[in-house]
Write a structure and sequence with these properties.
globular, 8-stranded mixed beta sheet, alpha+beta, Creatine Kinase, Chain A, domain 2, 2 domains, 6-stranded mixed beta sheet
Length: about 450
């Protein structure tokens, strides 16, 4: 890179550095859980490098740091990957003590082929499959999360944070501005950090849980939006830590409260005309609109293991508790797993309400788009629109991780879109993680089984 390489950075990054000396660059990549892995290097060194190395084993780790036996025929030799920066992702790390940028990198092998199980590459693969068919997918994610009291003892239950009033955050205050004001200092930092990073927030609302908030992002390119969610998770955690609380993206952190989702809104444009393929010339719903819904209905069960990636994820799917229990679809109906929001014909979209906020944003968006693309290619019709309360319907999604992984392993259609090598590695890592969980004896078991059975 040239000495003035910062001149080509995104506008927000340039504004952040104006009149300041850049100290450090964090070279990062998302692993399977969505944790930022990488290296922090002095800015003077980053200027001289065009890539750096990390071992491919970062994608074989479970959420606990253990390993899945996914290395393949060559064995666990921790082969180096080549990580190249995507300078369009360069953004501030405004919570640091010095002037620091973050840059997302993409992973390649020694022949310059994308590493197939790197999450960002998985999403790029899906988007490229749309583009090869003359289509441009558009998404808008919604992020739900809890602000909770500091919790440094895993044996202790998670509790709501203390609000500005000195009282714990209260539940059942959805859309309350007073409730939002309770977290004012944290939200102020979220806005400030987002502005420094060049992210535009479409809105922040109080959700139904105690200390539960939702941030909506503007619609756009799937990879760009996944990058933003990846960055936002870190941003929000850092803002919370400044105010003696934790931000958690667990799907179900508090037993009696609603869970946290990453609702994904989808629309698809014709690349040549720029028109939304879900709407016809007269504004009516097209065959493609119904085919996309059918794809979600028919293939999301196999994708649940990706969009609900942990044992805790399945605690969110509770009847009458703000999360879907089936794959019914309906117009303007928040009890269904697949919702068609109110919109103009040009903005017609389909919302997947099953994805949890605990999923890796690259993989969650990729899996959801993959189901829709399969639907567009299969050209099937969905079930009849559900009218009324979908919680009165039957449950038709897996309720635990093992069953979800079985469905994922059996879905050759989904593997073809996401990539067979990704499907192989993901299944091995998640099964290792699930078996590790099954080896843990819970407090419930000790309380009720120790002396009673």
């Amino acid at each position: 890179m040239s000495d003035d390489w910062t001149k080509g950075l995104p506008e927000a990054a340039q504004a952040y550095l104006e009149g300041r000396r850049l100290d450090e660059v964090e070279c990062i990549i998302s692993d399977l859980p969505g944790i930022a892995r990488g290296k922090a290097v002095p800015a003077s060194k980053f200027k001289r490098q065009t890539y750096f190395h990390l071992p491919d084993s970062i994608f074989y780790q479970t959420i606990t740091g253990d390993w899945g036996e996914a290395a393949g025929d060559d064995g666990f030799i921790e082969r180096d990957m080549i990580l190249k920066p995507d300078m369009d992702t360069a953004t501030a790390a405004p919570w640091t003590g010095d002037w620091t940028l973050q840059v997302i990198h993409d992973a390649y092998d020694r022949k310059n082929n994308p590493i197939e199980f790197a999450p960002r590459n998985v999403l790029k693969r899906v988007v490229e499959l749309y583009r090869k068919q003359g289509l441009e997918p558009v998404v808008a994610p919604e992020m739900e999360f809890f602000l909770v009291a500091r919790n440094i003892d895993p044996a202790k239950k998670i509790e709501p944070m203390m609000g500005r009033s000195g009282r714990p955050a209260a539940a059942r205050q959805a859309y309350s501005m007073t409730a939002v004001d309770e977290f004012g200092p944290v939200i102020d930092d979220i806005y400030d950090f987002a502005e420094a990073q060049g992210f535009e927030i479409d809105g922040i609302t109080q959700e139904g849980g105690a200390g539960q908030l939702e941030i909506n992002l503007l619609h756009g390119d799937p990879v760009k939006l996944a990058d933003e969610v990846f960055f936002f998770k870190r941003l929000i955690r850092e803002a919370a830590l400044r105010h003696d609380c934790f931000a958690t993206f667990m799907a179900k952190p508090i037993a009696d409260e609603p869970g946290s989702a990453m609702h994904i809104h989808h629309s698809v444009l014709d690349k040549e005309s720029g028109q939304n393929i879900f709407s016809g010339p007269q504004g009516g719903e097209t065959d493609a609109f119904f085919h996309f819904i059918a794809g979600l209905q028919n293939h999301l069960p196999a994708a649940i293991a990706v969009i609900a990636p942990y044992v805790n994820s399945y605690r969110r799917y509770v009847r009458d508790h703000a999360a879907p229990i089936n794959l019914e679809w309906g117009r303007d109906n928040r009890t269904t797993g697949i919702r068609v929001p109110l919109s103009s014909p040009s903005a017609r979209r389909v919302e997947n309400r099953l994805a949890g906020m605990d999923c890796n944003p690259y993989l969650g968006i990729a899996a959801s788009l993959a189901c829709g693309l399969i639907g567009l290619n299969e050209e099937k019709r969905p079930d009849k629109q559900f009218k009324g309360d979908a919680y009165e319907g039957d449950e038709d999604i897996p309720r635990e991780m093992g069953a979800a992984l079985d469905l994922f392993d059996d879905s050759s259609a989904l593997h073809e879109i996401l990539g067979p090598e990704f499907a192989r590695v993901y299944s091995i890592v998640k099964r290792a993680e699930y078996e590790e969980f099954l080896g843990v004896i819970s407090p419930w078991e000790r309380e009720h089984l120790l002396l009673n059975v």
